[in-house]
Amino acid sequence: MSQRLLFACVAAGTVALAFATGCDTEAFCFADCGEGASASNGTASGGNDSTGSFNAGGSTGAFTTGSGMGGMGPCTPTNGGLEICDGLDNDCNSVVDDIPGIDYNAVETCGLCSNNCLNKLQFMENITCTPSPMPGQTPGTCNGDCIQDYYDFDMNPDDCETFCQQTSPSDTVCNNKDDDCDGTVDDDVDLCTTTDCGSCGNICVVANGTPACVKLDMDPTCNANNMQCQIGSCSPGWVDLDLQYATGCEYACTPTGPELCGDQIDNDCDGLVDGLDDLTLDPAIGQPCFGDPDGICALATHEGITACVNGAVACTGPDVLFEGDVLETCNGLDDDCDGITDDNPSDVGGACGTSNNYPCTFGTWQCVGGALDCAGDINPGVEICNGVDDDCDGQIDLQNGSAPSDSVGACNVPIPPPANPPGTTSPCVAGTKACVGGVVSCLGSVGPTAVTDQCGDDSNCDGTLNNQPNFLTDVTHCGNCNTNCQTGAVNAIWACVNGGCQFQGCLPGWVDLNNDQQCEYACTFVSAQEACNGQDDDCDGQIDENVLAPSPVQVCGVSPAATRPECTSQVQVTCNAGNWQCTFPAGVCGPSCALATETCDGLDNDCDGFMNENVADYGQPCASDDGLTPGHGKCRTVGTKVCLNATTTTCSATKADCNLLPGGCTELCDDIDNDCDGLVDETFNNKGTVTAHFYRPKVVRISSAPNVWTYQYEASRPDATNVVPGTGNGYWTSAPLGNTLDKTVSCSEPTKIPWFNVTPQEVEQTCQAMGGTICSTANWKTACAVTPGSGADCTWGYAPFGAACTSSFTATKQCNLGYFDFNTSSAGDQDGLLPTASALLQNCNADWTGLLGNVNPTNKLFDITGNVREITRLNASTYILMGGAFSSQAESGATCDFDFYAVENDFKFFDTGFRCCFTQDPTL
């Protein structure tokens, strides 16, 4: 937003004094400008960003030059007969403006008394005067150099009208800025590149490829008429098929070589596939071939040539044979070309042989060794007893009407039993052969009754008595053939010992509980440890006694993730009728873990490993002042959400006592509610509920009649540090359109970057919010001069008070002005903003020690000279900038009474800040 800068000058009567004393206070200087002066038509512009701009208009303010002619009538002396530069013949000597002792070679009166180079040349320094060839009649020539960041682009020798901060020695970046400050925007941009092809910002873009910026003629320069974006190359896997830049490399394809038949791939990426393309270079096409590599198909007489047919390589030709074209015959050749000779020939399978009277039968022609053979034919044979008409005469098992020879005579004639021991018996009896049902049978014979001999009986009829029992040990023949110890012993085990029966125990699955050798209890021993299964695992007659209970996870439906005691140690697991029964604490897993309803009660009600999941925020972080406005400030504590009742939670955190916190309850200017009373950085005029604690700015008392206190340090924001200025504007009650009411308080603290780029309107509002006002110009001068009107007034804010503050700077006594190098380790003069009361400038302060009760540490008023210009109020609509800034090149422009700059309430600049003043002590 452009602001107006008012240049004020006094009446003509004081101009002579200005010329006599000279002007040595920066380039923008009028004679005796300041309070009470009239406004000229000069203008100033303040930037809205951090760099800003500052331009001044006008050349001579209210001064004009007369014709110098007189004598047309009687002359009346003016100005008491003292000649001054006003275009009049004040002393009536017929010569206009012939001021005694005037130096027409001086920059203030260059050739003419009215030609003040210091006023005429705008935004220039090192100003000199080239003498006039006719001093007093024609003006001399004013010369000067543009001050830093100002340039003369309109070729007007009287001003450097354009503000420009050079960011580069050349203007090669397309950013619509004059980076090299040569008066032309983006004039060094390379228009031959893909990022600026022909014109600034014309970016070449190729889909799936790399663009190129191509020149269309022989003109060595690149411009919009001869440069064109084209496709430079395609990315791997993409092809420009339609040759159109707009569509880029639109065809997804990777060339693999010449087009091949049968792979359904566009190998050469020309948009045609297989048979639709030229297959001249396909090595598989036009080659000698056969319809099948087997049998007669592979003979030279059936050779063909390869061609692409229906998208596949095929063997073609009039003589080509394929598998199955010719029927297979039994001739030792592979006629059907299936790779197998004489397989399923068409001339086999017919009947062959001489008789078909059962069991004789015709055979079938088969292919054997490449020749036909009758296989399977059956001819008449010798008749035997087998249920078959072996001789094919129509009679089964008869030979000429009689039984076959193999079914006549005695059979199964036994061996007589042994004679010793006497009484040995044999069951076997001989029989007679007969053909019965096609089988030779032995009729009437009795055979062995056992494979091995029984006790006293040649049971297998082998003529010997063997396998006889040992009457001393055989349990079934204990002592003799008729005593069986196991008679009646259904589940018991008996043994024969020395010819007598003895009890040995029970069969598996049975137990003799009452020791009666009957083994009456059916039970199979499983384990000495009883399990809960409704069975007697240890076969002691009791079921499920002394079982080992499993964990609730195994049998109660408890999740392995559950760790709460109500789901683990507090669960009772008992065996009931062969089943595990789980008993949970009240409110847990009822009627079961799967059907349990989770409530916020501090229990894992469904034992799933998650507690109180019915309330989504249980266990979530929270703060003591959640939902409260204002909050608890520094007393804010954090905790977690805990159960308030079954369905809701509350925060476990409670408001802390600031007295117990580091730093206590002392309210600081830090954007934090340090005393936790609901107010942030509260001031003495709005102390809040805890009246003992409020922000006490560092102030120095500068007057007692009336009482005035001012900030000891240049104002800063609460979140400022020694390297950043902080954020937020100072509007509290009203703001220009587009601005918010940030309501940022101002601080007076050391080692903080001052609040700059601030408007007088913001200063008015933030100082009022602090319980004070913007400092008046008079109050500021009082603060700087220390003892105004005493004859020992300070000229600058140099310490200590006395001679030091009235003489120019020295190596150890200086403030942050343009000539101060705050980083001597780097080459050149390093100028910039410093934190308040910087350690680099120990003696840059107005020393109020011992005056008006000011004692250490609030007895020194820092940076009243330099660092930032400070906004003061002259009247309701005019604000004066005082004290010089880090950008000020002349020490004289930073004196306590140099009040040249007058601005309006919406002015702001990067080197301008402020202080607040108070009519009562803001620390009480």
List the helices and strands and how they pair.
Elements: E1 5-6, E2 8-9, H1 15-21, E3 38-39, H2 117-120, E4 124-130, E5 141-146, E6 150-151, E7 162-163, E8 192-193, E9 196-197, E10 209-215, E11 227-234, E12 238-239, E13 251-252, E14 288-290, E15 303-309, E16 312-316, E17 351-352, E18 363-368, E19 371-375, E20 410-411, E21 431-436, E22 439-443, E23 492-497, E24 500-506, E25 510-511, E26 521-522, H3 552-555, E27 572-576, E28 579-583, E29 621-623, E30 638-643, E31 649-651, E32 699-704, E33 707-711, H4 760-769, E34 773-774, H5 777-785, E35 845-847, E36 860-862, E37 869-873, E38 879-882, E39 901-903, E40 912-913, E41 916-918
Parallel strand pairs: 37-40
Antiparallel strand pairs: 1-39, 2-3, 4-5, 6-7, 8-9, 10-11, 12-13, 14-15, 15-16, 17-18, 18-19, 20-21, 21-22, 23-24, 25-26, 27-28, 29-30, 30-31, 32-33, 33-41, 34-41, 35-36, 37-38, 38-39
Description:
The chain has five helices and 41 strands. The strands form 16 sheets. A five-stranded mixed β-sheet has the order 1-39-38-37-40, with helices on one face. A four-stranded antiparallel β-sheet has the order 32-33-41-34, sandwiched between helices. It has a three-stranded antiparallel β-sheet with strand order 14-15-16, with no helix packed on it. The chain is mostly beta strands and 924 residues long.
